[in-house]
Design goal:
129 residues, alpha+beta, 2 domains, 4-stranded antiparallel beta sheet, 3 helices, 8 strands
Length: 129
């Protein structure tokens, strides 16, 4: 049903394009090229790494904590005072200036900070424009 709807829309678009092209070659050409320009523009934006909304944080660390490292009992006791909460998929630690969450095997899955500004190991800065 959806395929039939899409085919119908494309058919109507082609008929309108043909009518416009017979009436005015410039208007018809512009009407025909609009979806092509939009698709090419979308492809350029999607394929260009400058427009990607995320950054690879695989090798980043904040203070001595790195993503995907495993917390040991000694690490946990070195926190000093902290608040530990258990969730369905792991643990959440509220440290002095850091929020840290782990999975059930104590692998660090997320790091966030309370203090602004802070810098990661490679120089990424949070909170500074």
């Amino acid at each position: 049903m959806i395929l039939l709807f899409i085919v119908g829309i494309v058919f109507i678009y082609i008929m309108i394009s043909f009518f416009l092209y017979k009436h005015s070659k410039l208007k018809g050409s512009i009407f025909i090229l609009c979806p092509i320009v939009l698709l090419v523009g979308w492809w350029v934006l999607a394929a260009n790494h400058y427009f990607v909304s995320s950054t690879n944080l695989e090798y980043e660390s904040i203070e001595e904590y790195r993503l995907q490292d495993t917390l040991t009992i000694a690490d946990i006791h070195s926190f000093g005072s902290f608040e530990k909460r258990e969730s369905d998929d792991g643990y959440f630690y509220d440290l002095r200036n850091l929020y840290l969450s782990t999975d059930k095997e104590n692998k660090i899955v997320s790091l966030s900070t309370k203090v602004i500004p802070i810098e990661t190991s490679s120089g990424l800065k949070k909170g500074i424009l």
